[in-house]
Amino acid sequence: MTIVDTRTPDPKTFISGATGDWEVIIGLEVHAQVTSEAKLFSGASTGFGAEPNSHVSLVDAAMPGMLPVINEECVKQAVRTGLGLKAEIHKRSVFDRKNYFYPDLPQGYQISQFKDPIVGEGTVIVSVGPDSKGEFQDIEVGIERLHLEQDAGKSMHDQHPTMSFVDLNRSGVALMEIVSKPDMRSADEAKAYVTKLRTILRYLGTCDGNMDEGSMRADVNVSVRRPGGAFGTRCEIKNVNSIRFVGQAIDSEARRQIAIIEDGGVIDQETRLFDPVKGETRAMRSKEDAHDYRYFPDPDLLPLEFDQAYIDALIKELPELPDDKKARLIKDAGLSAYDASILVSEKAIADYFEKVAAGRDAKQAANWVINDLLGALNKAGRDISETPISAEQLGAILDLIREGTISGKIAKDLFEIVWTEGGDPKAIVEDRGMKQVTDTGAIEKAVDEVIAANPDKVEQAKAKPSMAGWFVGQVMKATGGKANPQAVNALVKEKLGVE
Amino acid sequence: MSVDSATVRRVAKLARIAVNDEDVTAMEAELNVILGFVEQLSEVDVTGVEPMTSVIPMAMKKREDQVTDGEKAEDVVANAPASEDHFFMVPKVVE
């Protein structure tokens, strides 16, 4: 494979070493578990967290004479994902055997796709940022390929002094290996890429993206070079299982490589592991036997073939993807690019926003979702899925503002109450007398009282009309924030005789 | 194409087959005879011929996405030399 450098060296991403600047080159192989009921080649369940070896068929355990039969849903999911990555779909692909021995691989080979993958080259647009100025930079990350393969089982080494325990529940679960081109130049870019990829997969519903359950793992390829120079030797960091660790692994590996080169050494191409506790990478032991997988076409499986009509039918069913949704929110709902980016960043947030915005003012809905809801969630360290305020409840609060039942200020208090106590916003406003006072008589009385109590301020206001604001504030305070601010403003000016 | 004794050892190692020096000598000769025999195929001009993947033209059979199997941990580990709580037990392997 010839590597094409698609990026212009950007000093912002450089790492400074003892002898000058370095540029880090990153490519990622992301393993994403396909969302399906059954496994790729057997009828056993893919459910997480089951009793050992209970989600295993005799096919997954590689009993003699068992034959694989492909799950059509997994094929569809791979094609959908390819479409979401704006990639070329291959109407004919081939399954190969990747041969190696490990106790959690009962077949002695993994069924994968080597020469002819189901999906070819594509592109992902990644927003990196915000930087210190609050700005985002869009970069394009090329996709090299996507192929279908089987997951392996799981070994546990801490259950017994001399034996490892093997559970094959994951064995045979369908994975998509999504290989990027080496188009990333910093840990932040790589993290943003994995985040975007996860967003796309979640919008498509082809992978749940739960990294802590192992549904998504990344192998990270890292090399360093002088800015714009020839590519260096890369190391592959295997099985990094969180986005934060992807960033840490890249930073520590880049520093390790720079230190070696600056000391006059050379980088050995090798496979490494990231140790999250120490925050550094280390070489894997089995180096002597450079992997020789001896790929060959799996004689148990025919080539996977489908026609354009099959692809077209899947295109028709595709949901709106984050980039399209963002463009629509900017164009049709009039949101800023920044707000739209935040709202589409997670499917759950986008769904929430769209529920709140339905039939309401989109900009106002966006402000409340981003500033109030996401702000509060962030402060509480919670995820959108754990929000104590439903989209319906927030929508009801916005309705109360629009009807003039409550002021914007009272709405913030109402938000707090619903957040901590729950309940129907409308009923809360009724029960606790939070309704905005629009009765001019009552407001007038309050205005008169404030004016009567502050004759000196009245004199000042006559000379300096902006003092009227102070009176408005006093009236609002006197009415517990419930007076309609516009009405107060008008009355204060009238009574003071200022414009 | 022919193989030397180093290749025989490597292939055996990759296949996790233990071979002694005598085996290697014998296998080297045997493999070279087999490879020489197969080599005759390269005399055939296959320019523009697609590799055959199936004797009769047929599409790959597909399965619906339904859970139809599993829940038989007892059967799965029945032949295991060692097992505990339905786990396979193997000599400790730690990377």
TrEMBL record, chain A:
Recorded hits in SMART domains, A to Z, give: GatB_Yqey (SM00845)
Catalyzed reactions per annotation: L-aspartyl-tRNA(Asn) + L-glutamine + ATP + H2O = L-asparaginyl-tRNA(Asn) + L-glutamate + ADP + phosphate + 2 H(+); L-glutamyl-tRNA(Gln) + L-glutamine + ATP + H2O = L-glutaminyl-tRNA(Gln) + L-glutamate + ADP + phosphate + H(+)
Q: Which PROSITE patterns match?
A: GATB (PS01234)
Entry's EC annotation: 6.3.5.-
UniProt keywords, alphabetically: ATP-binding, Ligase, Nucleotide-binding, Protein biosynthesis
What are the Asn/Gln amidotransferase domain coordinates in residue numbering? 351-496
Protein family: Belongs to the GatB/GatE family. GatB subfamily.
Q: What does this protein do?
A: Allows the formation of correctly charged Asn-tRNA(Asn) or Gln-tRNA(Gln) through the transamidation of misacylated Asp-tRNA(Asn) or Glu-tRNA(Gln) in organisms which lack either or both of asparaginyl-tRNA or glutaminyl-tRNA synthetases. The reaction takes place in the presence of glutamine and ATP through an activated phospho-Asp-tRNA(Asn) or phospho-Glu-tRNA(Gln).
Kindly provide the name given to this protein in its UniProt entry.
Aspartyl/glutamyl-tRNA(Asn/Gln) amidotransferase subunit B
- Name the species this protein comes from: Jiella mangrovi
Automatic annotation (TrEMBL), chain B:
Instruction: Check the record and name the Gene3D superfamilies matching this protein.
Output: Glu-tRNAGln amidotransferase C subunit, N-terminal domain
Can you state which reaction this protein catalyses? L-glutamyl-tRNA(Gln) + L-glutamine + ATP + H2O = L-glutaminyl-tRNA(Gln) + L-glutamate + ADP + phosphate + H(+); L-aspartyl-tRNA(Asn) + L-glutamine + ATP + H2O = L-asparaginyl-tRNA(Asn) + L-glutamate + ADP + phosphate + 2 H(+)
Keyword Protein biosynthesis included in the entry's annotation: yes
Q: What is its EC number?
A: 6.3.5.-
The superkingdom listed in its UniProt entry is Bacteria
Family matches, as InterPro entries: Asp/Glu-ADT_sf_sub_c (IPR036113), GatC (IPR003837)
Q: Which UniProt keywords apply?
A: ATP-binding, Ligase, Nucleotide-binding, Protein biosynthesis
User: Is the keyword Nucleotide-binding assigned to this protein?
Assistant: yes
Enumerate the Pfam families for this protein: GatC
PANTHER family attached to this UniProt entry: GLUTAMYL-TRNA(GLN) AMIDOTRANSFERASE SUBUNIT C, MITOCHONDRIAL
This protein's assembly is summarised as: Heterotrimer of A, B and C subunits.
Protein family per UniProt: Belongs to the GatC family.
Q: What function does this protein fulfil?
A: Allows the formation of correctly charged Asn-tRNA(Asn) or Gln-tRNA(Gln) through the transamidation of misacylated Asp-tRNA(Asn) or Glu-tRNA(Gln) in organisms which lack either or both of asparaginyl-tRNA or glutaminyl-tRNA synthetases. The reaction takes place in the presence of glutamine and ATP through an activated phospho-Asp-tRNA(Asn) or phospho-Glu-tRNA(Gln).
Q: What is this protein called?
A: Aspartyl/glutamyl-tRNA(Asn/Gln) amidotransferase subunit C
Organism in which the protein naturally occurs: Jiella mangrovi
Q: Which gene encodes it?
A: gatC
